[in-house]
Design goal:
It contains 17 helices and 13 strands. By secondary structure, it is of the alpha+beta class.
Length: about 475
């Protein structure tokens, strides 16, 4: 029995098949086409939306945007690979109507319109909000670090530069002494010394020292703590993140369907102070005046929690276990119970600590509570302090933290909801979408790049939830 045979490639067809026949009604490219066609690209900030009357015709920004959205949805981010897809991929051919831009044109579009991608992301969030895909009740906030186009060997901190200059000075002094000793030995006994090689080493060290000195002077001029040579905006991240030099990506994820409500990229190494601005931006896009937000210990900062309350955000951030007492193995502050009615602390042994001293921490009034006599007679003192008595400090606005602690005690499961919600997009973006590193350089560029990534993630989630036809129907409504 013969096998099935295909059509002869050289056979001419009297009635050629239409490209549209290869793209089914539930193919995501049909939604991408409808979504982009419904956008006001000029209002979003895309350039060359209106074609020029003279000169060679250019590509429509709508077509280029469709190609990028298609590429990011299908894990294709490189401009060179997108050029290849436009030639061989039937879905891309359908989407672009057989247009074939080269990789330089594709790359230039992403670079020039980097700021406009964020508005496209927000337009899709608004569409999903209208479809009730966002619960708009609880946001999970977290950050992750993504590698930049900058090797860690081309990143220098102020401390590293100062250390190198000191070591270079010591090495130069040693080489100069050896060179002088060599010259004296040569004069005494005659013959040649290794002064030529030492002179080469001295010249090389001086040249390298001068470059490091110039970098340190640049840090002094800008007030920054570190400098990157390949990508000036990239920063060395904390060691525990396993990302040498990169950017800090912040997400606010709606816990209902794990969809991204807001995203931002910054080069701040730690997350302190980023909770309020991230959630406020999400509230504006979601159209709510009040919302709950949960984050991990890395966001614990009293000024930020206070700003959350003022902005209508009910924050859930666990208190980190830190402080001098904890590091030395003594009782943590959390074991001392505060009585707001009497304005006193009750220590683990049951003694009462009264307000005794006053100071300031970052413009916040700080009060210290203690009882010298009680500590002197306390049997638990060896476990409490190594000093003559224990002090417990309290900020003037620390009642904000007490209220948040009470909320966390009432809802202990909310931290698990944060983890299972916000880790989903991070895992998908880094593993399935294969974005462990940025392709572009500069903070503005990587912000535009990640806006496309977050948009692609949300499109994939929305298609999973209601399908392509459901999204297209929402656009027509």
């Amino acid at each position: 029995m013969a096998h099935l045979s295909g059509t002869d490639r050289s056979q001419l067809l009297l009635l050629p098949e239409a490209v549209d026949d290869y793209v089914g009604p539930d193919n995501p490219v049909r939604f991408i086409e409808a979504f982009v066609n419904g956008l006001d690209l000029a209002a979003a900030g895309f350039e060359r939306v209106a074609a020029k009357e003279t000169g060679r015709p250019g590509f429509d920004p709508a077509d280029m945007l469709k190609l990028y959205i298609y590429g990011y949805v299908n894990r294709v981010r490189s401009s060179r690979r997108l050029e290849v897809e436009a030639h061989r991929n039937i879905e891309a051919i359908w989407l672009l109507r057989n247009l074939k831009p080269d990789f330089r044109t594709i790359a230039a579009f992403r670079r020039v319109n980097r700021s406009a991608f964020r508005k496209v992301f927000r337009e899709f969030v608004i569409l999903c909000r209208q479809l009730d895909l966002f619960g708009r009740e609880l946001l999970a906030v977290d950050g992750t670090r993504i590698k930049a186009v900058n090797n860690k060997d081309r990143n220098f901190t102020r401390a590293a530069l100062s250390k190198f200059i000191r070591e270079a000075d010591d090495k130069l002094a040693d080489y100069m002494k050896r060179l002088d000793d060599g010259d004296a030995e040569e004069e005494r006994v005659g013959g040649n010394s290794d002064g030529g090689k030492l002179a080469e080493k001295i010249a090389a060290i001086r040249d390298k020292r001068a470059r490091h000195k110039a970098l340190l002077e640049e840090l002094d001029r800008t007030g920054e703590d570190q400098i990157s040579l390949t990508d000036p905006d990239a920063r060395a991240m904390a060691r525990m993140t396993k990302v040498g030099v990169g950017y800090n990506v912040q997400l606010a994820v709606d816990t209902m369907h794990k969809m991204i409500a807001e995203q931002e990229v910054c080069n701040q190494v730690i997350d302190l102070g980023l909770l309020t601005p991230t959630v406020e931006a999400a509230m504006e896009t979601l159209g709510v005046e009040r919302i709950e937000a949960v984050a991990d210990r890395g966001y614990f900062k009293i000024e930020d929690i206070e700003a959350c309350e003022a902005a209508g955000i009910t924050a859930y951030v666990p208190r980190p276990i830190r402080g001098l007492a904890v590091r030395e193995g003594y009782f943590a502050k959390e074991l001392f119970r505060y009585d707001p009615d009497k304005d006193v602390y009750v220590c683990p042994s049951g003694a009462t600590l009264y307000p005794r001293y006053e100071g300031k921490v970052r413009d916040n009034r700080k009060i210290e509570y203690c009882d010298r006599a009680a500590c002197k007679e306390c049997a638990l003192k060896p476990r409490c302090t190594g000093n003559t008595y224990r002090r417990v400090s309290r900020l003037e606005n620390e009642a904000i933290l007490d209220r948040m602690a009470a909320r966390l005690d009432a809802r202990p499961d909310i931290l698990d909801r944060r983890r299972e919600s916000v880790e989903h997009p991070f895992g998908t973006i880094k593993q399935w979408m294969n974005q462990g590193a940025f392709l572009m350089r500069g903070l503005d560029n990587v912000r535009g790049e990640f806006s496309l990534t977050a948009l692609a993630y949300n499109i994939k989630r929305a298609i999973t939830l209601i399908g392509v036809q459901g999204l297209i129907a929402a656009l027509r409504a």
